Amino acid sequence: MDGKLFIGGEWVEPQGGHYEVVDPGDESVVGLAPEASPAQVRQAARAAAEAFGAWSRTRPQERAAILDRAADIIQREYEPWTALARAETGAPTGIARGMQVGVGAARFRRYARGALEPVEKGLPPQVTEAGPMGKAGVLGALEVRQPVGVVTCITSYNNPWANPAGKVAPALAMGNTVVVKPAPQDPLSVFKMAQALAEAGVPAGVVNVVNGRSVAVGEAAVDSPDVDMVSFTGSTAVGQRIAEVCGRSMKRQLMELGGKGAAIVFEDADLDAAMMGIGTTFSFYSGQICTAPTRVIVHRSVHDALVEKLTGYLAFMKVGEPAAQGTVVGPVISAAHRDRVESYVELGRKEGARIAVGGDRPAVRADGKGFYVAPTLLVDCTNDMRVVREEIFGPVVVVVPFDTEEEAVALANDSDFGLISYVWSGDPARAFRVARRLRSGGVGVNTIGRNMEAPFGGFKRSGVGRDVGSYALHAYSEIQSIVWTA
């Protein structure tokens, strides 16, 4: 199975050969990933299309049982698959265990239940008079959610378990078939997910996993005529290109794109709570998460106090190898991304920001290997700086002061992005008032926590559509209306 693609229920040799997957922590080789050809991607889409009819008619209870068994298998293989996730992503052990593999299993379990959720809803009858459309009568109506068809799932590198599971599980629960295209940096975990589904009894062609670094592989996964929908998580720039291709053939889209989360901290906020929430940006996936509160908009009266607390907090942010005990901040995904993050820090300095802490490359290993970035806090920032406006996707936080509530809202909304924002205030009425004015798909009030049944998605350039909870089931379905004479 290792090093092979999963197409039509078979493990097949890749026509493009293999490439090395590198451990971001020490630059060792984790394994060999397959490189599909565009023809193999189209073959996977054709297999998914051929399997769709039978799978879409499968009893919901059978789909639920397969998803449940897949969750059981993931839990059985928890430790070795955690080690693999840690190695190919560079995530510290706790994150690889709990937030990657653990969340992946939980999402299969959640959508096993989701497969049993009602897909029909009766609508109020309508009395009609005689006319060109027929005799007078009473018309009944039913709203029915139907599967979309073949869904291409293109997933992000920051979480090769939770992100694919959050697409594949609800898509399968609704009766769709899927072609999964993992991020090329860390695809090995996604093939383990396919292995779990195959062992769980998913029929041939229902799940297909293809992979490759070539742009042509991704293009084939999007523009194949057998694909009815594309679900993508990644950068706004790539999302725009995918949307253009989907628009030509009217494919359905679900897009979770970039973010530049604003964290508004009022003068009456619990600064320790704000510090802890904002501090997750530095530690959680080393800032490689689109929901991170990376843009701190703080009342001028508590600006210095919050900066002091964040500076002190960073003293406890141990940067280390992912498997080492006590590591809080691991590496970023690649040397190229490390260089990109560091270039933004230098750009911020040139723009006039002050580096309150961080900014230097940490010496984690004696041999200098690993793609480590120091958690960095940039202060004296203004909203016109590129470091404030552009997504850095690393352990970097920028701080912008404000004087009035109106100014705070204006600063927060002056962004191309609108995924998740945050408000910290001791006045619940003000916090909720401000939250309602923020142009973001989600707002955390005095918390960075997420309710995993709440809709998730973005305003503006942060995406199209909503998923999570039952909203994911809706996202992977079409609504059909059936009308009859009562």
From TrEMBL:
InterPro entries, A to Z: Ald_DH/histidinol_DH (IPR016161), Ald_DH_C (IPR016163), Ald_DH_N (IPR016162), Aldehyde_DH_dom (IPR015590)
Domain (Aldehyde dehydrogenase) ranges: 11-482
Record bears the keyword Oxidoreductase: yes
UniProtKB keywords: Oxidoreductase
Pfam families for this protein: Aldedh
Family assignment from sequence similarity: Belongs to the aldehyde dehydrogenase family.
Domain of life: Bacteria
Record-given protein name: Aldehyde dehydrogenase
Keyword Oxidoreductase (UniProt): yes
GO molecular function: oxidoreductase activity, acting on the aldehyde or oxo group of donors, NAD or NADP as acceptor
Segment forming the signal sequence: none
Taxonomic source organism: Streptomyces subrutilus
